[in-house]
Amino acid sequence: MTKRNFLTIAICFLYLGSAYMSQFYRLMDYCDGDRVDLITSFGNYMFQAAGIVLFMSLFKFKAEIAGSRVFFAVVLAFGTVFMALSQLSDSAVVIIWSGYVFNVHTGVVFGYYLTQFACFMHAGLASVMYGTAYAAGSIGTYVMSLIGDGDFLKSGIITVIYALLAAAAAVITLTGSPISRSEPAGNRKAVTGPLIQLSVIVIIMTVISVIGSGLYFSLPQAEDVNWNLIRTFYSAGLIITGIVMDKDRRIGEILTTVSLIYPLIATALIGEGVTGTVTMGLGYFFRGCLTIYYVIMFADIGKRTGRYFIAPLGLCLSRVTESLITLILMSFKFTNLVQIVTTALFFVPLIILVIIRQTLSHQTVPDAQTQVPAAVIDVKQRLALFSHKYNLTAREAEILELMHDNMTDDEISARIGISRNTVRFHVSNILKKTNSASRVEASRAVDLYIPGGMNPFQ
Question: What is the pTM of this model?
Answer without folding.
Answer: 0.79
